Task: structure prediction
Amino acid sequence: MAVILDIRDLRKSYSDGFEALKGVDLQIEQGEILALLGPNGAGKTTLISTVCGITQATSGQVSVGGHDIVTAFRAARAMIGLVPQEINLEPFEKVINTVQFSRGLFGKPRDDAAIERILRQLSLWDKKDNQIRALSGGMKRRVLIAKALSHEPRLLFLDEPTAGVDVELRKDMWEIVQGLKADGVTIVLTTHYIEEAEAIADRVGVIAKGELLLVEEKASLMARMGQKQLDVQLSEPLETVPEALSKYDLTLCDAGCTLTYAYDTRAERTGITKLLQDVSAAGLVLRDVVTRQSSLEDIFVGLVHDDKGDTA
Result:
């Protein structure tokens, strides 16, 4: 696949010395969905704003579809659609007029068929003559996406697209995103809902304090950094882990009724068989044994926590 977004050593600093972006390198291939995760103030919105030409970089290079965002601004910007966090729409305007106006801003000729296709894709066609103020919050977000798609961009930025949206509408939005990908649109998604990234992203990027900590295929990231956890549930609670089990680095949970053991599934030996033998030899009676896989949220929290520790 061709690279549609190429970011090289992108930096953004302010007069007070604050560095919002610290040498970000990122390449995104055409047709993929990248979820960009990070805590508040990590640099997610600054990165998007810089690519879209809203914020001027201090240094570095960015190209979209081979067009430099500075020297070929119009060509680069024409390839980009942006759905911002804030719902900023003219409340008394009709849905269809709002979307058609956005298309005209990019110098695109009127195309009623294209606008109808976008509105139908977003389940907005039956509300095309409604004033924006009459729409629910979820429908207003769909209008924002329709506006961003009105000039038929190939790279779409979704900055917290499901913030404040209920669970049902959030899942509808996921389906919309998958439909856009099927049409060949490349999507960069920032989100605080990590299950959102887990559900729809091809790759995951983690940013903290202006630095891109990693960008990796979601499946390989979870396989590489994820752990499995074994919960040994006991019939009788313990006050402390028995000395005979001290070598296993166990955690006592659930008011002493559960021994928790983390292990790497890629290791040649997990140690589970020997652990269960030693638990039995220690005279402990098992009630149940449960395993669970680390989620993307576990990995994200661990990465950001480690970064805070390193920079403290």
